[in-house]
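Re: [help] complex structure
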Amino acid sequence: MTRSSGTRATIGCLDLAITPRAPVSPERYPVLAYEFGNRCDSPVVVDLAAMPVIGRAADGQSYALAPYDPHGEIREAVLDGRSYGSERIAYPSAVELIDVCVDAAAIARHAPAQWLCVMTDAVR
Amino acid sequence: MSRIGVMLAGVLGVVGATEVRADDLDSGVGLDGTCTESDTVVGYRRCSPYASWSRSGPNVFAELGVNARFLVGASGAPTIAYRRVGTSSPEPAAPAKDGAIGFSFVERIGVRITSALYIAVEAELGSGVEINEDANDRALLIGGAGVAGLRLPLHVGSISAEIAGGGRVVEDTGGRLSTSNEAIVEVRGRASLWVSPWCTFGAVAGKSLIQRDEWMMGVFLSADTFAFAGDR
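Output below.
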């Protein structure tokens, strides 16, 4: 498990970068910026809805996080060959988190899990 | 920036053109119909939907090209003239068809129903004939057709066979300059090469099924909504 203020990974054809962003909501939910590119000619699945996301508090306690999606928008989508995209997603949490970890492999429906962690306190 | 902060900033006029204004906090759409984003985070942004980067919608292609068309003369059925090569030779030289080659621009848009089957509509605009009362030429002024084709995807591009049916206006100089309408039924073969994931360059050649001596050939550039037309 890697931990940084921003991190990158390659899962099959998908190049992925995850960067923490400053909270924008009044609730100051942690925000992750996902940038992804398809290095192959064929399309790939990008699933930011079903991937496991875990937050870690200063006391070491871990919490499963779900994306802030009041309109039910976040879903599996297909990224075309040689294309790229980006999304910023907030993760509501009742406690202050220092880390947010994402199973990057699950974004592209790959296994085994490839956990990437970013420091949410890096942008505060 | 919080919604209250955005509202205050909008009222005070300190928010730039890319920020939300006080009149569009609910929908993101201002009084002038423009949508301005105050946030880029899913659930907070209003103008751009989630996954605007995704591949969606029909597998559409659009083409621009130049065609050369041979149309037989206005006399109707093609006449074959024999030219003698020298006065001493009784044998006819190669036959010369009564007609002319004209050039036209063609634009077409189509959808791939499957990887192997497509339909399209096309419009063609020609230059007509040169005014020459001694000639018996015909040339395309404007035309339109519906097309259905079968396509074989290859790694470097594709080849396809199609049939086109429609109508056209032609100009002819059969004694005097005039125009006429006529039907088109053509069979064509096409080949294209990928020059980028969304663009091909290709060539087409075809033959009329109504007037067997008429033919066409051309080159085209095509743009696709799906990378490699969704073949890979």
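Helices of chain A lie at 104-107.
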